[in-house]
TrEMBL record:
Keywords annotated in UniProt: Amino-acid biosynthesis, Aromatic amino acid biosynthesis, GTP-binding, NADP, Nucleotide-binding, Oxidoreductase, Tyrosine biosynthesis
Biological process, per Gene Ontology: establishment of cell polarity; tyrosine biosynthetic process
Record's catalysed reaction(s): prephenate + NADP(+) = 3-(4-hydroxyphenyl)pyruvate + CO2 + NADPH
Top EC class, one word: oxidoreductase
Binding-site residues, GTP: 443, 499-502
SMART domains: ARF (SM00177), SAR (SM00178)
Alphabetized PROSITE patterns for the sequence: ARF, PDH_ADH
GO MF terms held by the record: GTP binding; GTPase activity; NAD+ binding; NADP binding; prephenate dehydrogenase (NAD+) activity; prephenate dehydrogenase (NADP+) activity
Origin: domain of life: Eukaryota
The name this protein goes by in its record: prephenate dehydrogenase (NADP(+))
Length: 555
């Protein structure tokens, strides 16, 4: 019997709060063979008995019952409620138990544990840096050993191993600082955009003003945020001291830059912006491949109008992001350990504006000399200051009101914007004693621009082609060669599955190889295999070749 089997037989996992993330943990732990008990609000206990009657975890009346019998207790509650809930149930903690939390901000969580838990209780907290609908495999999972032994830490790592997440050990302060650095300012910017558009009663995709690559990304990211629940962002902004400071600075940067604009102080504006650029992006050179380019961004237009002449635009929201980072001495590239694909898109948009030839100078010139967006910049400045006021008040109800009011205005487009998060899955496979982390990237047109967010440290690319779709084989060829031209994939092996060989009229593997121009790949290990995913034919042959290539390159 292994160590983890012994733990599964002897330990009980308790979860206080069966919201989206608490329920995810309860299900995954029970599926892995752990004994799990949980509770939610006591007043909905009877209805939850019916709701969770088919679940394998045991539902208890309240946190007192959970705390009395659990060896590891996870408070999976909103950051705004952590203090009062730990105060309510902390005294019932089982002797010798370990306690942790799953809130997005660790400062109030740790303070509540230190204040209300007995001194002999160990504290080891968690934070899965993704939403409840995302596959946990390969996603960052922060472990904070605030007050725990090495044996207890080993127990927690054994527990969460079933999630197949990427473990990152941080202190509570490091966690809050890094999550703030990678999220606070950018959230403030795109939340403010939404408020500004809603106050002006403008759907940006319906007018001719917001046309062009940067505009497409700004609209999509803003709507992507408003497609989530308000508390996802409120907890970080209001309870995280580092985030609080950054949101305040963002509002100040917006105000300062807008003031320079309306005072026609172009030289002063340019000097300030270039100082920020050199600080944040100074390590990049002309050979650096930017995360995004205009041809990619253009594919994300929600506008039904064809692309035309790009209107003059100061891009005040993006200028202020970089100015804020400079004022706060934050280099976002230094804090990627807790980043998400969405943050890398945030960073890519600002990087594109600041590092693409001529774009930054044009934005500065437009800020002074063009007035087409002056009223929009005013609305945005007011919105940014308004968000900073909401956060400075520390009022969750006020935050919820402002967020949901804007969310309602944009509701017609939220489903389409949500497509940004669809099409990416990751699994860990074990094949012939080799462990493979496999990203499954959707092939839809709207998904392809985000492939490059996953290129780093890629050992091999598996490219699956529909051999029956002769009309789109040329498109597949172009996308394949465009992808392989990326520097990060220069050393990656290529395995092509000519799929659907079981169907009549399918191109043969040789015909697919010719259509894809695979013979042009001179400096890369590649192979093409005829396959049928439905029948399982060709898959083993392809993976055998791939494993041999990867092992040879590791020698």
């Amino acid at each position: 019997m292994t160590d983890i089997d012994v733990l599964k037989q002897s330990k009980t996992i308790g979860i206080i709060g069966l919201g989206d993330m608490g329920l995810l943990y309860a299900r995954r732990f029970t599926q892995a063979g752990w004994n799990v008990v949980g509770c939610d609000r006591e007043e909905i206990f009877e209805s939850n008995l019916i709701k969770y009657s088919n679940e394998n975890f045991k539902l208890l009346l309240n946190g007192h019952h959970v705390s009395r019998i659990s060896d590891y207790i996870i408070y999976s509650v909103e950051a705004a409620n952590i203090d009062k809930i730990v105060k309510l149930y902390g005294a019932s903690t089982k002797l010798g138990a370990i306690v942790g939390g799953q809130t997005s901000c660790k400062d109030p969580e740790i303070k509540a544990f230190e204040k209300y838990l007995p001194n002999d209780v160990e504290i080891i907290s968690l934070h899965s840096l993704h939403g409840p609908k995302v596959d946990t495999t390969g996603q960052p999972l922060v472990i904070i050993n605030h007050r725990g032994s090495e044996n207890s830490l080993k127990f927690i790592k054994n527990l969460v191993s079933c999630l197949n997440s990427k473990l990152v050990e941080l202190t509570a302060d490091e966690h809050d600082k890094i999550t703030a650095d990678t999220q606070a300012v950018t959230h403030a910017a795109f939340l403010s955009m939404g408020v500004a558009w809603s106050k002006a009663k403008t759907y940006p995709w319906d007018t001719g003003k917001w046309i062009g690559g940067i505009e497409n990304a700004k609209i999509n990211i803003s709507l992507r945020i408003y497609s989530n629940k308000w508390h996802v962002y409120a907890g970080l902004a209001i309870t995280n001291p580092a985030a609080h400071k950054q949101v305040m600075q963002y509002a100040q940067s917006v105000t300062d830059l807008f003031t320079l604009m309306i005072e026609n102080k172009q030289d002063e504006l340019k000097e300030r912006i270039y100082k920020a650029k050199n600080f944040v992006f100074g390590h990049l050179n002309e050979e650096t491949n930017l995360l995004l380019d205009d041809s990619i961004l253009q594919q994300y237009s929600l506008s039904k109008q064809p692309p035309g002449k790009v209107n003059p635009n100061s891009h005040l929201s993006l200028l202020a992001i970089v100015d804020s980072w400079y004022q706060l001495s934050i280099v976002p590239y230094d804090h990627m350990i807790c980043s998400t694909p969405l943050f890398r898109i945030f960073l890519g948009v600002t990087e594109y504006l600041f590092c693409s030839p001529g774009l930054l100078d044009k934005a500065i010139n437009d800020a002074i000399n063009a007035t087409e967006f002056r009223m929009d910049d005013l609305e945005f400045t007011i919105a940014a200051r308004g968000w900073s006021d909401v956060i400075s008040f520390g009022d969750f109800k006020l935050y919820q009101l402002e967020f949901e009011r804007t969310q309602e205005f944009f509701s017609p487009m939220l489903n389409e914007a949500n497509a940004l998060a669809i099409g990416f899955n990751v699994e860990t496979l074990s094949y012939k004693n080799l462990k493979l982390n496999v990203w499954d990237l959707g092939g839809q047109t709207s998904i392809r621009p985000y492939w490059r967010c996953y290129y780093a440290n890629t050992a091999a690319v598996i490219f699956v082609v529909d051999s029956t779709d002769k009309e789109r084989i040329d498109t597949a060829s172009k996308e394949l060669h465009l992808m392989l031209s990326e520097e990060e994939l220069s050393d990656s092996a290529l395995l092509v599955f000519a799929n659907k060989q079981d169907q009549a009229g399918a191109l043969s593997a040789a015909e697919v190889s010719k259509a894809l121009n695979l013979v042009e790949l001179k400096d890369r290990s590649w192979s093409i295999v005829a396959s049928s995913a439905i029948k399982g034919e060709g898959l083993t042959e392809g993976l055998d070749w791939l494993i041999d290539v990867i092992k040879d390159e590791q020698l």
